[in-house]
Amino acid sequence: MEQAVIELNGLTKRYGEFTAVSGLNLSIRAGEIFGLLGPNGAGKTTTILMMLGLTEPSAGTATVCGIDATRNPMQVKRRVGYMPDDVGFYEDRTGLDNLVYTARLNRIPAKEARVRAEQMLEKVGLSEAAHKKTGAYSRGMRQRLGLADVLIKQPEVIILDEPTLGIDPEGVRELLTLIRDLSRNEGLTVLLSSHHLHQVQQICDRVGLFVGGKLIASGDLDALSRELDGGPTRLVEADIRGWTPELTDAIAAIEHVSGVTSGDADALDNAAAGDAGSVTVRVAGTADFTPQLASVIVGSGAELLGLRPMRYGLDEIYHRYFEGGDSRDRVH
Ligand SMILES: Nc1ncnc2c1ncn2[C@@H]1O[C@H](COP(=O)(O)OP(=O)(O)OP(=O)(O)O)[C@@H](O)[C@H]1O
User: Fold this and answer.
1) Which H or E run contains 155?
2) Which of 58, 120, 127, 265 is buried most, with the most CB atoms less than 10 Å from its CB?
3) Using a 6 Å cutoff on CB, does residue 208 contact ligand 1?
4) Which residues form the ABC transporter domain (predicted)?
5) At the fourth CATH level, which superfamily is domain 4-224?
6) What's the rounded Cα separation, in Å, for the pair 310 and 165?
7) Is the reported ipTM for this assembly greater than 0.90?
């Protein structure tokens, strides 16, 4: 069993009558990139603030690197780098000066502070902008400097609140790649809050779906997919020439198959009318049914042109959990 670096037990935060975070249990392992995903107001920031000891829980505990964050916030602060969604810098000072200043605040001796600051700038790809005032940095550059700023004290854990907010797509890609490489190369544990599904999907080992102050599901993409209550866990697309409505019935009767759909009603109508074109059907089920599917299609006398396993994306999972079933049939 790998060691848990972040351990939340029954973590709860109430503001008067309102419960912002409710009975949160979560364990994040060393070296893991965990995405806290949820819509605005879900309680992500409140949870992060409790992990850092910056706000006191109403109930439960937040333990980070084995330290109780509420009782020993200063000790946690030494080992955890926190990047808020809007990092503040001294605008009239250079990127390098800002980093040296942070290093000095963290009691790093002057000479070493300068060396480390330069190393960090190199790491986040800002060496060329080292002597530029941060007031002239772009949003993407500021976020990269923010990352350098949390890394300079060599934390074991970094917590990033909406790190990609307001950055253009290329900047997002670069920043996410940087975060992933840092975690992989240096064994950093990363907790990342976001409501951008695709971004989280790109780099996180596991994701927690957070809504209304509750963690309603967590796991890797496959685990979340399996957790979809009553939902299919396997999805296969088949391209068929010579489809008939009877074939759909036969497919639906295969063991473990829970649904057969096609996005193209016209193609189905044409095929039913004897057209030689192909149709694509999407078959969902609760366990592997692919060999039987192939055999039923071929056995019906139709031609099987292609068979592709599909995967539920985080987008679909998110929509199913948060926004109801209207996107249930969408696949990547
Ligand atoms: N100091 C406070 N007093 C009262 N309510 C608060 C306070 N701080 C946060 N809340 C409420 O708690 C809920 C959770 O807020 P939080 O900022 O943690 O959400 P979030 O998931 O981080 O959202 P966002 O993505 O918008 O940052 C919100 O409804 C918010 O209004």
Assistant:
1) none
2) 120
3) no
4) 6-237
5) P-loop containing nucleotide triphosphate hydrolases (3.40.50.300)
6) 30
7) yes
